[in-house]
Write a structure and sequence with these properties.
The structure holds three protein chains of three kinds. Chain A is an all-alpha fold. Helices cover 73% and strands 3% of the residues of chain A. Chain A has helices at residues 2-32, 39-57, 61-82, 92-114, 139-161, 163-173, 175-180, 185-207, 217-232, 237-257, 261-279; strands spanning 129-132, 135-138. In chain A, strands 1-2 form a two-stranded antiparallel ribbon. Chain A is globular and about 60 Å long. Chain B is of the alpha/beta class. In chain B, β7 (158-162), α7 (170-185) and β8 (189-194) form a beta-alpha-beta unit. In chain B, α3 (96-103) packs parallel to α6 (140-152) and α7 packs parallel to α8 (197-203). Chain B is globular and about 45 Å long. By secondary structure, chain C is an all-alpha fold. Chain C has a single domain (2-319), classed as ABC transporter involved in vitamin B12 uptake, BtuC. In chain C, 79% of the residues lie in helices and 1% in strands. In chain C, strands 1-2 form a two-stranded antiparallel sheet. In chain C, α2 packs parallel to α7, α2 (24-48) packs across α13 (249-268) and α4 packs antiparallel against α10. The radius of gyration of chain C is 20 Å and the shape is globular. The chains are: A mainly alpha, B alpha/beta, C mainly alpha. Chains in contact: A-B, A-C. Chains A and C meet through α4, α9 and α11 of A and α5, α12 and α14 of C.
């Protein structure tokens, strides 16, 4: 019983992080119809940003998060304007391969600059925990969950109550009609790409004190994020959150109840992905998926 | 009097196919002008060229003494041009009220958003009833009201209406054109594309007949009906293959 | 036309016999170019039908493991081991084709990416079967000389090129192109998209697995990170894109160009990370500035030149390769 409770708590805390990890990917697809295969690298840069802020300046990852997010957002927006915008109307294959190539470049630039060594940030809350009887709730994970929740709520409010957020949703639904409203669609693409990258980098900044930071961490997270967005339905924000929690539960359950579970848990995202593709390719709440 | 909108020798189309060969027309301040023609004659392409959704190959578009082709598409709304597109194109998963808010996205119309919203709700009380509903869940007629209302939210000087009666019941057409007449009375210039000539004649003073990408006749509605130019523009289309 | 075929045939035979006369150091190069050629042809074949694979290492790894397992467990020799390698590639590719169904484009790409990751996890987690993360050596007693492996690789590469050429002569080729452009329209022409996808992908998977199967006999050692290496996936897509996607010659030219570039960076910088970085830059550059690849760009350029210089009418005869 206590194991089950621990499993549930862990899964919920992980689900928060996964939601933040995948939401930018999903939203980005909804708006630009381009899958950001370099999203993992945005996460990775966020993690390194937080790491260096902590090592060099002694700044807590939570404090450096906003700065890191803004920097990554600005850099990503430039990247979009400079390279990605050119393939918006190109065939899928060009879009996929360009983004994949950008991810590859970023990953290896990081590997060359900072070596492949695994690093981690130590914070005062990294090793402490709330203890309720046998239940152990690490402070770091709670803080990560709360941060993720705040950012997601902020994103939701931006999308629904701000002029630009509303315009973003309009562009996602019908770009041409949005132009007729006087919305500069290509600028909205750039803004949303930047915001999605910022969400990715925030995930990285949080991960810096939960996981190890390596140049290749983004790729593994990307596969998980894919499983989540395919599960939830590409482009759907509530679907993404649902998918994130579903994957978190599945992974946590496997690592608790299956022999050698923590190793197998890494493969759960793959199984989930295949199952969704077989059973319900539109995802749980999906509607935005174009089959072509 | 100088016209508000004028097209001169417009040649436009998609990729390699030319839809508009040579279109020239003018709309004066406060005037309602009908653009009539058969399917594929180039009416929608004309509208798209004016709003900037396509870039013409050749020709001139002037709006309020300004060269419109030098203005980016999204900035044309700010100048006072609003298109209510063919097939409505409301944002289906966004609420009615937010659709209307989006209509007043441009900086010029944003300050008077509240007042515009009130006047749209007065014009179409049905929309006020449905304000929290997702636009995609409404009937075709209601969506058309929303599309017209949305384009009015930008406080246009010139309203372009592309086939507003398309797919609507006769009763709904009546309601809609009643509202359009009211809009016209408020002084907004209207360029109206219609296949339903009868409905168009009820509000328009002047018209252009267009066939195969060229203006074939123009004049007051009375002149057009008398000369038989309309019949030929609707029936005389020799190329049923074109489908713009 | 006849003369060209003779030249190609002689070149192919020369390539296969090259390991017999070349210095042993060349074997490594022949093996790498040959394997990459097979991978590139395989990848291009799938791309021709609109299927963009971001996980060709899955087939490569499956082929490697299949060859290794039948050798170590059943004592199968080099040549025999390549048959199960190809089979498992074909079967798994057919399964993926069925599973991804109508979903193409990004979904197929994502599914392939996840497949190679999933297989890597499985290989790590089943040590009694695969040797796990520690890896496993192939039975040394069964290993042929590197010369033999290099010759077989060259022969396989030639074989794959012939298959690709043969496909380009059959209506199959037009069906693929129709599917790439518009699957619904293809369906109306009487093409069964699912059957074609299964056929194309099985062939593609078998080729990539064959390359993996041959390579394990050369390297002698396999672990999940090597078998399902992202590197293979990247190489498989870079070569055809650099050479010229959707063309016959593209993957072949691309294989030479890619290995050439990686040798140059290896000599000049000498670090692993740099070669991957260079691949990434090539990918970005090719897509943005040269989407038709070397061969496609050359074709366009030479056609334009031919059009502008009407004084050389004899050149037009060689227009169709």
């Amino acid at each position: 019983m206590s194991l089950l409770l621990q499993c549930l708590v862990d899964a919920i805390l992980l689900g928060g992080l996964y939601s933040l990890m995948a939401i930018g990917l999903s939203l980005g697809f909804g708006v630009t119809r381009i899958i950001n295969f370099a999203h993992g690298e945005m996460i990775m840069f966020g993690a390194y940003g937080a790491y260096f802020a902590s090592i060099l300046l002694g700044v807590d990852p939570l404090l450096s998060l906003p700065v890191v997010a803004v920097l990554v957002a600005a850099a990503s927006a430039l990247l979009f304007k400079g390279l990605i915008e050119k393939v918006l109307d190109a065939p899928h294959i060009n879009q996929i391969l360009l983004l994949f190539g950008i991810g590859l470049v970023l990953q290896n630039v990081a590997a060359i600059l900072w070596t492949g060594d695994a690093r981690s940030v130590s914070t005062p809350y990294a090793l402490t925990a709330f203890e309720f009887d046998t239940l152990l709730v690490p402070h770091g994970r709670v803080i990560a969950f709360v941060t993720a929740a705040i950012l997601i709520v902020a994103l939701f409010c931006w999308l629904h109550f701000s002029e630009l957020g509303r315009a973003t949703r309009a562009v996602a639904e019908n770009g041409q009609a949005a132009t007729l409203m006087g919305i500069n669609v290509s600028r909205m693409y750039m803004i949303s790409f930047g915001i999605n990258a910022a969400l990715g980098s925030a995930t990285g900044a949080i991960s810096a004190f939960l996981l190890t930071v390596t140049p290749f961490m983004g790729f593994h997270m990307l596969v998980k994020a894919f499983a989540i967005v395919v599960l939830g339905g590409l482009g759907s924000v509530p679907g993404t959150i649902l998918g994130a929690f579903a994957l978190a539960f599945a992974e946590t359950w496997v690592s608790y109840y299956v022999p050698d579970g923590s190793g197998w848990a890494e493969g759960v995202s793959f199984v989930v992905l295949l199952c969704v593709l077989i059973i319900r390719p539109k995802g749980i709440l999906g509607q935005a998926v174009a089959v072509h | 009097m100088k016209p508000l909108l004028s097209l001169e020798g417009l040649r436009a189309g998609y990729d390699d196919s030319v839809v508009l060969e040579d279109v020239s027309l003018t709309v004066n301040e406060g005037e309602v002008v009908a653009l009539l023609g058969a399917n594929g004659s180039g009416k929608t392409t004309t509208m798209r060229a004016v709003t900037g959704l396509i870039r013409p190959f050749d020709g001139k578009i002037t709006f309020a003494d300004q060269d419109l082709l030098a203005v980016e598409p999204h900035k044309r709304v700010d100048l006072g041009i609003a298109l209510c597109p063919e097939g409505r194109q409301v944002f289906p998963n966004i609420s009615v009220e937010e659709n209307l808010f989006l209509g007043s996205f441009c900086p010029r119309s944003r300050p008077s958003r509240k007042a515009s919203l009130e006047s749209v709700y007065t014009l179409f009380p049905k929309l006020a009833e449905r304000r929290m509903q997702k636009a995609g869940l409404m009937s075709g007629g209601e969506q058309q009201m929303l599309a017209v209302g949305r384009s009015l939210m930008s406080k246009p000087r010139m309203l372009l209406l592309d086939e507003p009666s398309l797919g609507l019941s006769p009763k709904m057409v009546q309601v809609l054109f009643g509202a359009i007449a009211q809009v016209a009375k408020s002084g907004i210039s209207i360029l109206l594309v219609e296949q339903n000539a009868q409905a168009a004649f009820a509000v328009a003073k002047r018209g252009y007949a267009i066939a195969m990408g060229r203006v074939t006749a123009s004049g007051s509605i009375a002149e057009l009906t008398k000369s038989g130019a309309l019949q030929s523009s609707f029936l005389g289309s020799h190329n049923p293959s074109s489908n713009a | 036309m006849q003369a060209r075929f003779v030249i190609y045939a002689l070149l192919a035979i020369a390539a296969i016999l090259l390991p017999l006369v070349a210095p042993p150091v060349m074997n490594n190069l022949i093996l790498r170019v040959g394997s990459l050629m097979i991978l590139a042809i395989s990848w291009n074949l799938a791309a021709n039908a609109g299927l963009i694979s971001l996980g060709h290492s899955a087939f490569w790894g499956l082929g490697s493991y299949a060859a290794l397992l039948v050798a170590n467990r059943l004592g199968w020799p080099f040549f025999a081991s390549l048959i199960p390698a190809m089979l498992i590639g074909a079967i798994s590719a057919a399964a993926i084709a069925v599973i991804t169904g109508r979903l193409r484009g990004i979904f197929f790409a994502i599914a392939m990416l996840a497949l190679s990751e999933g297989l890597r996890v499985i290989a790590v987690m089943t040590p009694e079967f695969t040797g796990g993360g520690a890896g496993v050596f192939i039975d040394q007693a069964l290993r042929p000389s590197t010369q033999t492996v290099a010759m077989v690789t060259a022969a396989c590469a030639v074989g794959c090129a012939i298959i690709a050429y043969w496909i380009s002569l059959t209506p199959f080729h037009y069906a693929c192109r129709a599917m790439r452009n518009n699957e619904n329209a293809a369906e109306m022409l009487g093409i069964n998209p699912l059957r074609f996808r299964i056929a194309v992908l099985s062939l593609s998977g078998a080729m990539a697995s064959l390359a993996g199967g041959v390579n394990i006999w050369y390297s002698g050692f396999l672990d999940p990170a090597i078998g399902f290496d992202l590197h293979v996936t990247i190489l498989a897509q870079i070569a055809p894109i650099l050479g010229g996607i959707h063309t016959l010659a593209g993957p072949i030219i691309g294989a030479f160009a890619t290995i050439g570039l990686s040798e140059v960076t290896r000599v000049m910088v000498g670090e692993q990370g740099f070669s991957l970085l260079v691949y990434g830059v090539i990918l970005v550059f090719s897509i943005l500035c040269m989407p038709k690849g070397i061969y496609g760009t050359w074709l366009t350029w030479s056609q334009r030149k031919r059009q502008t210089t009407p004084t050389a009418p004899s050149a037009t005869k060689a227009a169709t390769p």
